[in-house]
Amino acid sequence: MTLQIKNFSPLDPSATEPIYRQIYWRFRGAISDGLLAPGERIPAARALAKELGLARGTIDTAYSLLTAEGYLLSRGQAGTVVAPGINVRKPSATTEQAFNPAASTSIRHKAPVLPFQMALPALDAFPRKIWSQIGARCVRATRIPDMANPSVLGLESLRTAIATYLQVARGITCSPAQVFITAGYRNTLALIAHTLLRPGDRVLVEDPGYLPTRQLLAHLQIEVAPVPVDQDGMQVAYGVNSAADARAAVVTPAHQSPLCVSLSLPRRLELLEWATRQQAWIVEDDYDGEYRYVSRPLPALKSLDRDGRVLYAGTFSKVLFPGIRLSYLVVPAAQVERFEHVSETFLGGCPELTQAIVATFLTEGHFARHIQRMRKLYGERREATARGLKKALGDRIRIDLQPGGMHLILRLTEPQSDRALVQRLLAAGIYAEALTDWQVRDETDSALLLGFANIDSADTAQRLGERILALM
């Protein structure tokens, strides 16, 4: 309790009120607010005087005044305590939370995960036991040098593990030096923009497309040129003709975000040819390319890059869990030195303990096994969710069942605002996103985006669908 009293309100030597009176008021306030409970022992006068750097007589004077007024009780050799039976004000809930971390079983208070929440993997199926065992091992193995500032480029063991994984799983040949560890997709995109682009440059983006991409580029004063998307992905020819001076393109070729279509091979080659001809850059956002349900995952666009024009952005948020805040970027070999220089300015480095856990998770084979299990589970949950929703909503919706991804697209067959419906659902505790919020040019398509990874059965989906129906 000594430190709490010391820090509760700093003593002011320049104040007109004597120091002993300041100490008196601080103890009295702590007792009145319930921070010092009746019967609780207070610091010995000698110990408190030493800790505060004051004469013992100053502390004795304050204690004597508090005792005389009935706030404290001296018990001789047993020390001085707050007087038993004294009436104190019960601390508010806010005070209890601030000063009593043990009041809850967890120090992290978060809102619950909502049904159909987007961008969330199956949190109930994550191998937390294996993860905690690896975490404990990594903590025990922590050395003094490991506690210093982390490298802004990333932990070498993790960069090596990622390069190895990408070679096998995504067909990308790269060295660990080409891999940069970042704190999420926004961090990745900002690093690319600061390194390769300038204010006033134009960038091709998908329409509809991932909203944070447009927001971040606009914040950096980079002009976005929206390009329509059809069943074969971004309409590359349209983008090239409408924005001939574009310096880059940001694409999601494996599963277009949010329509989940795949960029066709002819358009991939067309995009690569444009980048080489214009000396432009392609940012490949492969946020969940591992999750394809009708065939094997498609090779990454980066695997076709022969001229060093593609920057590959990957993340652990979708395949592990979002709270990890860990992503990575693979840059062309010729750009490594340039990115290293900019990283020193714009990257702060991610916690090395987290990186060490992920590196071990990768190298021991848990990552690959986890993805295989999740691919099977998501295929099952995708079908079950679609079946349950269709049973509840019938002809009111049309579901786009694309070959991959982690969410469903529910087309609303009756004219209504998807944005207004999303607000009603959220008020009822059901998560959804409006497709029109992802669009720039054409907002005529009204649809809901619903994540299915955490929906455990068709019955659950049907019950939720019935609640959605009541709000339509």
Describe this structure in words.
With 472 residues, the chain is α/β, with parallel strands linked by helices. It is built from 16 helices and 14 strands. It has helices at 2-8, 19-32, 45-52, 56-68, 93-99, 128-140, 156-169, 185-196, 211-219, 236-242, 265-278, 336-346, 352-363, 366-393, 418-427, 458-471; strands spanning 72-74, 80-82, 179-182, 202-207, 223-230, 233-234, 248-251, 281-285, 310-315, 327-330, 397-400, 407-412, 433-434, 447-451. Helix 2 packs across helix 4 (56-68) and helix 3 (45-52) crosses helix 4 (56-68). The longest helix has 28 residues, at 366-393. Residues 93-105 have low confidence and may be disordered.
Structure summarized in a few sentences:
This protein is an alpha/beta fold.
